[in-house]
Amino acid sequence: MTTVLKIEDVHKTFKTGFIPKKIKILQGISLTVEEGEIFGYLGPNGAGKTTTLKCILGLLFPEKGKIEIFGYPHLHLKAKERVGFLPENPYFYDYLTASEFLRFYSYLFSQKKRKEKIDNLLSLVGLEKSADLQLRKFSRGMLQRIGLAQAILHDPSLLLLDEPLGGLDPLGRKELRDIIVRLKQEGKTVFLSSHILQDIEMICDSVAIIVNGQIINQGVLRDLISEKILFTEITLSGISPKELEISGECVSDQGGMILLKVFDEENVDKVLELVHSREGKIHSLIPRTETLEDLFVEMVKQR
Amino acid sequence: MKIQAIALNTFKETIRDRILFLLLFFAAVFIVFSRLLALLTVGDRVKIIKDVGLSSISLFGVLMAILMGTGLVYKEIDKKTIYTLLSKPIHRYQFILGKFFGLVLTLSLMLLLMSLVYLIVVFLHTFQIEWKMLIAIFFIFVELLLITSVAILFSCFSTPILSSVFSLSFYLIGHVSWGLETLIQKVKPGFGKTLAQIFYTFLPDLENFNFKTEIVHDLPIPSNIYSFSLLYGIFYTLFMLVLAMLIFRRRDFI
After folding, report:
1. Is residue B110 part of a domain?
2. Residues of A whose CB is below 8 A from B81
3. Residues B171-220: pLDDT tens digits?
4. Residue ranges making up the domain that contains B179
5. CB of A206 within 8 A of CB of A223?
6. Binary contact (A58, B87; C-beta < 8 A)
7. Where are the domains of chain A?
8. What ipTM, to 2 d.p.?
9. What is the C-alpha separation between A259 and B28, in angstroms, rounded?
10. How far apart are CA A24 and CA A296, in angstroms?
11. Which of A136, A148, A188 is nearest to A172 (CA)?
């Protein structure tokens, strides 16, 4: 596999206040992103995710460290030509219409067949009907989609997406997730920063977790999360919660519908037998393996 | 191509700004009403119309350059539109030049419209097209180039209000600094004279672009003055733009 993005020991400090006080934002970030993968960059708010992205894009200058994109120094135009970026909050020129906005960016890449390309892009992100609408009239979801359109306008090999799913409704999130997966299928590499763990878990191949400006864990997602069953969630009815206390933890009891958390597989059998003997009913039984959220919460707590 | 794209986008941005048309409206009102002023003043009415008209073009042009220019770079940073723009394969100097040329394009159009109104007003009084006036207007344009570059320079590191104050101060100082030249001639050699000479070297002398009186009153102008003023304007503008590019080159966008 080819390394698409390589970050080595990047440090970034900000100075704030009248008497400048140094705040270390990035403290020796190192990571590599391989070709064709969706790389999830996870971290709580203020961990340094956006700062890392800004350093990659040359919007911030790190004090120390090296960043390479496709083997080129990150500020090299040949590197930038192959990168598409969608910022966290989609701030664009609101006085332009959607097609004017894309046309403007297409001129920065000296593209040919502009109109055809812009029309295709607008239909890809589902904005073909809003082509002549000014961006100031766009909803948040529409802005996110036009943002993605500008990021993929020049057919980049590496996409940097900063919190692309934040602030979107469930439908919008699904649509954007589908587009990201489709881009991966087309051979693009996606670097996705987010704190929405379910989305990362659903679509990412590798992840890196950043806390307080340091990467505390990184690797292939399936290697990081163990498949061991942590507990089983059983929803049942027709039995008294007191009888179940020995086998598991009763999480809720609403109108006789009990949600039970059972930590041992042997206890699961016991509960099933008990329900059967009392002629109760099992509504659902869900074994819970470790999730990215568990891993993330554990790691953040450790720091 | 990239500078051109940014310039065209800047042109679109500025041309859709309502304040520009408000200033253009007032400029037209001033030029047209110079006739009223001429009626109330003793002297050659046509000359007063010509003089007030040119001054209006200059004043409103400068106001447009300052009010638009000081917000250009700052707005991109404040609204974070610069994030996506600079992530594209462009150099930061191309961004500054694009912004500069975009605003210059807008100002040229505004100057053209104001000049048109002015020439029509003058034509209604003299019944001839006074092409000579275009020389004075051309040097107003050179002055606007310089003011635009100054406004963009301040816009690179300061808020629009502060940048406007700085740019306006630059404009005002530029129009009174010629007094230092007289001072240098009158003061005896010594510390005071050296200080005045230093100030005069570094402070702008925008009176170099002021040919209004000479042209309106048909006064003789040495031919080499035009080329000196033009070169002075070009080099000072370039100096300001280079300074803006240097400041912008290593700026962090937090």
Report:
1. yes
2. 91-93
3. 999 888 888 888 888 888 888 888 888 888 888 888 888 888 888 777 88
4. 2-249
5. no
6. yes
7. 3-224, 229-290
8. 0.78
9. 77
10. 22
11. A148
The CATH superfamily assigned to A3-224 is P-loop containing nucleotide triphosphate hydrolases (3.40.50.300)
Q: Identify the CATH assignment for A229-290 out of 2.40.30, 3.30.1710, 2.60.40, 3.30.70.
A: 3.30.70
Contact of A200 with A43, CB cutoff 8 Å: no
Q: Residues B7-36: pLDDT tens digits?
A: 999 998 888 888 888 888 888 888 888 877
**Site from B87, B90, B251 to mutate, A interface, most A CB atoms within 10 angstroms:** B87
Closest to A54 (Cβ–Cβ): which among B2, B16, B253? Answer: B253
Residue B254 lies in a domain: no
Domain count, chain B: 1
Establish if B218 belongs to a structural domain: yes
Residue pair B2/A107 in contact (Cβ under 8 Å)? The answer is yes
Whether B101 maps to a domain, the answer reads yes
Helices A114-124/A98-107 angle, 10° precision? 130
Cβ of residue B2 closer than 8 Å to a chain A Cβ: yes
Partners of B83 on chain A (C-beta within 8 Å) are 54, 57, 59, 85, 87, 91
